Amino acid sequence: MAALIQAVQVTRAFGGLVAVNSVDFSVRRGQMKALIGPNGAGKSTLLNLLTGITPVTSGDIIIDGSSIRGRPAFHAATLGLARTFQNVRLFENMTVIENVMVGCHSWTRQGIASGALRWIGHWREERLIIEESHRQLGRVGLEAEAGADAASLPFGKQRMLEIARALAGHPQVLMLDEPASGLSTRETAELSSLLRQIVSEGVTVLLVDHDMQFVMDISDEVTVLDQGRTIAEGTPEQVQSDAAVIAAYLGTEPN
Amino acid sequence: MSVAASPDSRNVSRKAVRRLDAATAAPFVIFLIVYALVPRFAADKELTMLIYIGINTMLAISLNLLMGYAGQVSLGHAAFFGLGAYTSAILTVRPIPAEVIPGLGTGLGVAAGCAVFTSLTRASGARLASAAAAMVALAWGSQAVHLHPAAVLLISAAGMAAFAAAARSGALMGGASGLTAAVVTLLCQHLLAGVLQRGGASPWSGMVAGVGFSGLVAYLLGGQVLRLKGHYLAMATLGFGVIVEIVFRQWTAVTGGSSDGIFGIPVMRAEWLGGIGRMTGVEVSPRVEYYYLVWAFVFVCLMLGVNIVRSRVGRAFRAVHGSEVAAESLGVDTSRYKVQVFVLSAGIASVAGSLYAHQAGVGYIHPSEFGFGVSAQLVVMVVVGGMASIWGALLGATTLQLIKTWLLGLEKTQHTLFGLTLTGLEPIVFGAVLIGVMIVMPQGLVRGVSDAAAAALRGTRRGRPGGSG
Amino acid sequence: MDQLSQIPQLIVTGMTAGCIYAIVAVGFTIIYNTTGVINFAQGEFVMIGAMVAAVLMAKFSFLVAFPAAVLAGCLVGAVLAGFVLIPLKRAAVLTLIIITIGASIAMQGIAQFLWGETAIPVPPFTGIPGEGFVEDRSFHLLGAVIRAQELWVVAVTALIVIGMTLFFRYTLIGQAMRACETNPAGARLVGISVRRMVVLSFVMAAGLGALAGLTVSPVFYARVNMGTALGLKGFCAAVLGGLGNFSGGIIAGIVLGIVESLTGGLLWSDYKDAVAFVILLAILLIRPEGLLGRKADQK
Q1: Fewer Cβ atoms within 10 A, N terminus or C terminus of chain A?
Q2: How far apart are CA A193 and CA A197, in angstroms?
Q3: What is the pTM assigned to this prediction?
């Protein structure tokens, strides 16, 4: 089966520090894949490389058959990549629904003149955007807060809003950076069921987390990263019993 | 959790859109009625003040789109105001000396060529600078040996194609930019040379030329400068503003310099707009007509502004302000939208500049009217009216003009305080207002006051519902 | 040939101006390193120092005028620090920029209200008292005329540079100030009062600015609108040298002064004032984070 996302021998160095070191990594279509590893393993850096926010030092990243190397960061989104951020990045100057409406950017086309003069295309597209945004808000249970300021939401709902915003772009892949951190047990359970539902709709999901428990329950395949290198890959069961993984996780514990 | 939108929720969203649009349209209707009737009740003095308020409102809207919505600081916005005013004034009344025209043409040509080059190749910084240098060299080279225009075109296009191929930016794109550069250069040096030397263009064509020129400058500058953030962007725009003001002051051959300025600028006419006045039964003096003209532009700007911020592109602008990284992750080409809003903003400022230059009963401009002080005042207007508020721009401009008039009156009374005559009141008050507003209500007067009132009424503070704009 | 003979004189003039840019750059750096704020009112501190000294010199001895000028600067600095401190924690860069711009505008207005717009001549420190005015001593060196006051400017700059270096390297307060910007939370943990350090940095920057102002006023006269240009050019120097870098800012300031004077004197006298800004724009565009500076703050 062809990989939807493929990282080939990807390396990223910040000054002298090599955060990601010749990693091969791939996500297949329709998968719920997880990327885990102890703190500082290079997970978030790898995610930033995959989404083109951080340029690679060497190696290549291929999304749905085309390379994103040397392309601006927004390019990955046009190839069907959507993501959330570890420390939620909402547009705090906008309302909840407007946040999701920005999410529709990649599949809409109206330019500045159309918006300024309210041409017919503007109306047609605006209605689609609003409907889609309400649909996504309803899906994460934020319909009631549509008109509120995004910044006024409690943290758990902000995470949900960020997911809705990412989904509004009709992505092929949704990448979530530590989506469960800071959530209550109940919110985590809701998140799990939401993610299962998203995968069942045919969206590929890539989860990045350092919390084994949450990830193991829901993913199909897990890749473990430690000190910038892949140390294990396989089903959750295989990974959990892998000696290198256990060592990496225990090794980070202070004595 | 429902998967698809139910017909119910669809209806709700449509109704909400309609209600929102009614709410948006209402102020415009009121605006039009007041607009038509004002000259019945206003004397010449008030009309003059209103004309200034109108021009400042346009400037505040343009800066607010850039700063309030897209979050890009500009401390040199008066430069675009000045470029509009000067372009317009020069073309209408001030013949350009023949010896300046070849250089001017080359400069414009190279600027246009660079614009084409960056838009095609996304080149910036040193690469763009070297392309510009190559174009200048080609232009000078072919002019020095007096070639036939067709040969100039060919050499410029071929030369730039070779340059671009060598710099690995695509020969075709290089050729296109070289061709543009040569076409614009030749246009200015030959076809338009007569107009430029005579200097009798109509104010309207002056305004159009001003917008084109300001837009070109903004496009080139924005593409480079908007990669900067925070303090660096503030200082870069400030530096640009200072440079432009110095050029106005020192390039005496073209701008009249700082001792003379430009005078005798013709009035921009719009007789058909004066018809509104006749319908309401006022005698239409040039000033009344000009009032109608300026505020028609204000109306258009308000409408465009309100529409844009509530459209796909406007949301992209605001997303850039909220978080560039997040906006990129959703497919928003942030650098493109930043340049777009910068050019839009410069264009509006330039129109305001032309209106300022062609005022009825003034006909005079001077470099000091487009310096850093003016840029700073524009920031005050935006801040007072409220960041990210189009109608707030009107409020900000009005408030500032009223304060100015009041202070001017106070200074004229020759009162004394601590034995000193009252001078320099304007900067003191404006400075204090800036600090005060930023500390007490950083959202601006409109939101600050309405928030405080709402909080007082409800007794509790909750999130504000609804959109903005 | 005639032009070339002017070069030594142009360098001397440029050096004097460059020293002032350097001191203003140091002021920017002190505040930036402690608070992360670019203080757009930095040039006004220079103006206050110059004006207070000029006004007091007319009536009192320099023994009164000089300390008073520096004190006035420090006082204004403390007040400004108060304004910046209120919203510092939650404020966006833009808010802080606007507050310092507001302060700059207001200071100019107040100065104009108090002292009027005319330039006030100031007697040089070590001049020869003449009839009605004090004439400065001067020396000839390599075809350039060097005024004693210009030596004073260089000396004061050198003194400030040495003093600052010692202060930040060897005193506890100096190190504490540096800690505040790098890691405010950590600084608080080890018992450093961030508020106090912010006020201190403004007071120091303002005091230095005022000192620079009173030193340079005999050369350039004291005017209420002298601050804007000095502030902007000092910022150019700070950026050229890498924002946050003391020695870089000082070297860049002096170099900027000399380059400006040479280009103005030899090439385009009309556009002398634009030189600094063209350099600033070029540097910002080629190296967005400054020559030696760190990455621009990301939101």
Answers
A1: C
A2: 6
A3: 0.91
Predicted pLDDT at B18: 66
Residues 6+ apart with CB under 8 A from B211: B84, B347, B350, B351, B354
Contact C288 B71 (CB under 8 A): no
Distance (Å, rounded) from C-alpha B80 to C-alpha B68? 18
- How far A115 CA lies from chain B's nearest CA (Å)? 5
Which domain CATH number covers C244?
1.10.3470
Which residues of chain A does B13 touch, with a Cβ-Cβ cutoff of 8 Å? Answer: 130-131, 134
At C46, is the secondary structure helix, strand, or coil?
helix
More confident residue, B15 or C52: C52
- Pair (A194, A236) in one structural domain: yes
Name the residue facing A101 among B10, B315, B388 (closest C-beta): B315
The domain of C104 spans 4-286
For residues A114-125, average pLDDT: 88
**Chain B (372-411) residues lying within 8 Å, Cβ to Cβ, of chain A:** 388
Q: Are residues A157 and A185 in the same domain?
A: no
pLDDT tens readout for residues B210-232: 999 999 999 999 998 898 888 88
Cα gap B160→B168, rounded to integer Å:
12
Least confident of A109-113, A199-203, B464-468: B464-468
- Scored b (16 or more CB within 10 A) or e, B421-451 reads eeebbbbbbbbbbbbebbbebbbbbbbbeee
How many structural domains comprise chain A?
2
Whether pLDDT at C270 is above 70? yes
Query: Does B302 have pLDDT greater than 90?
Result: yes
Domain that residue A184 falls in = 1-80+171-255
Number of domains in chain C: 1
- Residue C293 inside a domain? The answer is no
C285/B246 touch (CB, cutoff 8 Å), yes or no: no
Q: Is residue C280 part of a domain?
A: yes
